[in-house]
Amino acid sequence: MIIFSIETSCDETACAVVKNGIEELSSCVSSSSELHKKTGGIVPEVAARKQVEYIIPVVKECLEKYGRDPKTLNGLAVTIGPGLAGSLIVGVEAAKTLSFVWDKPLIPVNHLVGHIYGNFIGGNSIQFPAVVLVVSGGHTDLVLMRGHGDFEFLGGTVDDAAGEAFDKTARLLGISKYLGGKKLSETASRCKKNILLKRLPRPMLNQDNFDFSFSGLKTAVKRLVEKEKYLVNVVACEFENAVVDVLVAKTVKAIKKFSPKSVLLGGGVSANTQLRTRMNLEAKKLGVALHIPPPNLCTDNAVYIASAAFFNNNPSDISKISINPSLGIMDST
Ligand code: KG4
Ligand code: ZN
Prior knowledge:
The protein is globular, with a radius of gyration of 20 Å. Helix 9 (273-286) links the parallel strand 9 and strand 10. By secondary structure, the protein is of the alpha/beta class. The two termini are 21 Å apart. Helix 5 runs antiparallel to helix 8, helix 6 (181-188) crosses helix 8 and helix 8 (232-258) packs parallel to helix 9 (273-286). It has a 5-stranded mixed sheet with strand order 3-2-1-4-5, with helices on both faces. The chain has 2 domains: 2-117 and 297-320, ATPase, nucleotide binding domain (Nucleotidyltransferase, domain 5), CATH 3.30.420; 127-292, Nucleotidyltransferase, domain 5 (2-Layer Sandwich), CATH 3.30.420.40. 42% of the residues lie in helices and 19% in strands. 5'-O-[(R)-(carboxyoxy)(hydroxy)phosphoryl]adenosine binds next to helix 5 and helix 6.
C-alpha cells in the first residue's frame, strides 16, 4: 500500500510517499523557520501564508521524486492537528482536494501519534506493549502503547513542553531567537565541566506520577544568570542536564512499572544527543529494546504521517475531515 502524505502543522510544509508504512519512497520538507528567526518567534499569520506559498511546489517536488503516476497511490494522509489553525488548514484542504481529484481515500492523522511512527520507518520490528515518550515543541507526553491505536495516557506536562523550555531558554541566553533547542544543545556540548551541577531544579522528579513541569526551569535560569555571570555554555549544560534528568527518570519509572517490551521516543527533542545517549544507557541496564528515530525523522516531516496512517488505516469521508488545532495524543481523529 502506497500513501501520499501531507504535514503542515506549524512552519514546515512537508509531503512524502511511503510504502507499507515503512519504506520512504519520497520526502520533501520546506520550512519558513528562517523568517520566524528574524521576528524572534512564529507569527501564525505569516506561517500560514508561507504554507500557502509552499504547498503546491512541495507536492509537485515530492511527486517528481516519487517518479510514478498518482494513479499508483493507494491513498492519502494528512495531519489534522494539533498545530496552528492557519497552517493546518492549508495541508488539510490540499489533501482533500487531491483525494477528490485522484479519487483516493484520505486518512486523517494526529501529529503526536505521527511522531511515534518515525520509529517504524525502515521496518524495525517493534514489540508491544511499548512505553512511549513524545517530546516536541508543544507537547511532552508519556503513554503506554499496547498496539496500533491502543494507548493509555500515563502523564504529560502541566505547563510548558520540553521543547518550549529549550526554545525559551535559548532565547533568554541569547543563543537563538527561535527554535533554539538544537543550538542550545550544541552550546552545552562545549561545556567542559558543569560547575553549576544541580543548581537548577529537576521539576516533579520525585513526585509519584508521570507528569512534567518545565516552565519554572526557565525562570530559574533567569534568576541564576541575573545573580552572577557564568559562561553561557555552562548554563546551557546545566539546563540540558536538568531537562534530560527529568525526562529520563520519568521514562525509567514507567519502564519499571509496566515492564514493556520496547521503549519508543519521538518528537523534535528526541533528536537531542544527551537524551538519546542517556536513554540508551538506561534501556541497556533495564534490558528493554529502545527505539529512537534518526534525527531527521524526529523533527516535523510527512514520512511518519504516512506511516501512522498505514498502521491505523481509518479513512474518513472527506467532507467530515477538518482541522483540530488542540488535538491531544489520546484524541481520535
Ligand atoms: O516535533 P517538532 O519538530 O515540532 C513540534 O511538533 O513541536 O519539535 C520541535 C522542538 C523545538 O522546540 C526544538 O527546539 C526542539 O524540538 N529540538 C531540540 C533539538 N532539536 C529540535 N531540542 C533539544 N535538542 C535538540 N537537538
Ligand atoms: Zn512535531
